[in-house]
Amino acid sequence: MSKKALITGVTGQDGSYLAELLLKKGYRVYGLQRGASVPNTARVDHLNGGSSPANFFMAYADLSDSSSLTNIINRIKPDEIYNLGAQSHVQISFDIPEYTANVDALGPLRILEIIRGLNLPTRYYQASSSEMFGKVLATPQNEKTPLNPQSPYGLSKVFAFHITKIYREGYGIFASNGMLFNHESPRRGLNFVTRKITVGMARIKLGLQKTLQLGNLESKRDWGYAKDYAEAVWMILQHKEPDDFVIATGETHTVREFVQEVAGHLDFDLVWRGKGLKEHGIDRKSGKVIIEISPKYFRPKEVDTLIGDASKARRILGWKPKTKFVQLAKLMALADLENVKRGQELGLAMETSSNRNS
Fold first, then answer.
1. CA atoms within 13 A on the CB side of 138
2. Which end of the chain is more exposed for a tag (fewer CB within 10 A), N or C?
3. Contact of 144 with 309, CB cutoff 8 Å
4. Mean pLDDT to the nearest integer, 317-342
5. Non-local CB neighbours of 205 within 8 Å, separated by 6+ positions
6. Residue 284 and residue 307: Cα distance in Å, rounded?
């Protein structure tokens, strides 16, 4: 009999890649989505008409509502639950901290309590985040590095991380944390800096936009490919024992480096002039300013450098990233060039006003 998997956040980047992977492995996949007046299922619509449409199901529930979660979990009785749903944007968590905590911290607690209350043999995966390390106390960061979050989002993820461990150790639930560092793709939300860069520069390339405004160009991140990380998420729940794993590339790159890579793949010859807020990125071929720095895209508390040590995942799970930074920048740049040409930037008109560095 096929395994049954429940994915919260299935309409997001990670959820859509994970759903594809599980369907290929023969799972029956149930995806949760919040009720919304505007459809947000673009990343998974193809699954309903794909090779396994009979094994993919959508249901309405909300991480802030215990009753809806109880009903769906009790009805499905999934073998595996992947909790990927969250308010996942760091900057926005400063704007809506209470909502972020309700969904990102208490949401996991609700699911774990339902598993305990129904006495289900379900394996539970919690999507943890490199933002839990915040202002880092050791470099690189691994499973033993102290957590020091610098945002409501990071702090909410710390609560979720620890409550997952408490239910694992206190109630014997198979509950694991995946401490994923930044992972990107053409399916990343438009309010994240990588997609803001690839879409913005594609629009400039096609004459649809004059400049792109960014914040801290020196912010360093460990950037991987979301499709590679979806495989790691699945491997974590297949391990014989529940545990916590850092998933990362072990390489760090600045926002400036990402911009530079994308520019090259879109045939810009980018050079930088000026300093601080007066710095500009200029295309030497046209002589035009295409990158500007704006103070509104700086966070109240900036996390400058994150770099993960995934040696435990390599050793125990046999996982390692397949996609290098330069490959990631290229595939995202070229994908968004085509997306913009077709007018399929996943709600660009609605989201550009709220873009932030992440």
1. 9
2. N
3. no
4. 96
5. 266, 267, 268, 337
6. 33
Q: What letter represents residue 279's amino acid? A: E
What are residue 288's DSSP bridge partners? 283
Asked if residues 152 and 94 have their Cβ atoms less than 8 Å apart, the reply is yes
The model's pTM is 0.90
Is residue 20 within 8 Å of residue 47, measured between CB atoms?
Answer: yes
Total Cβ atoms within 10 A of residue 57: 16
Q: Is residue 353 over pLDDT 50? A: no
H-run or E-run covering 127: strand 123-129
Q: 141 - beta bridge partners?
A: 308
Q: Which of 330-339 are b and which e, b meaning 16 or more Cβ less than 10 Å from the residue's Cβ? A: bbbbbbbbeb
- Residue 358: pLDDT band with limits 50, 70, 90: very low
Total H helices, total E strands in the chain:
13, 15
The span from the CA of 73 to the CA of 340, in Å, is 39
Partners of 293 in the β-ladder: 214
> How far is the C-alpha of 239 from the C-alpha of 233, rounded, in Å?
11
76 class by beta-carbon count within 10 Å (0-12 exposed, 13-18 middle, 19+ buried)? middle
Question: What length is written for the chain?
Answer: 358
Distance (Å, whole) CA 288 – CA 65: 51
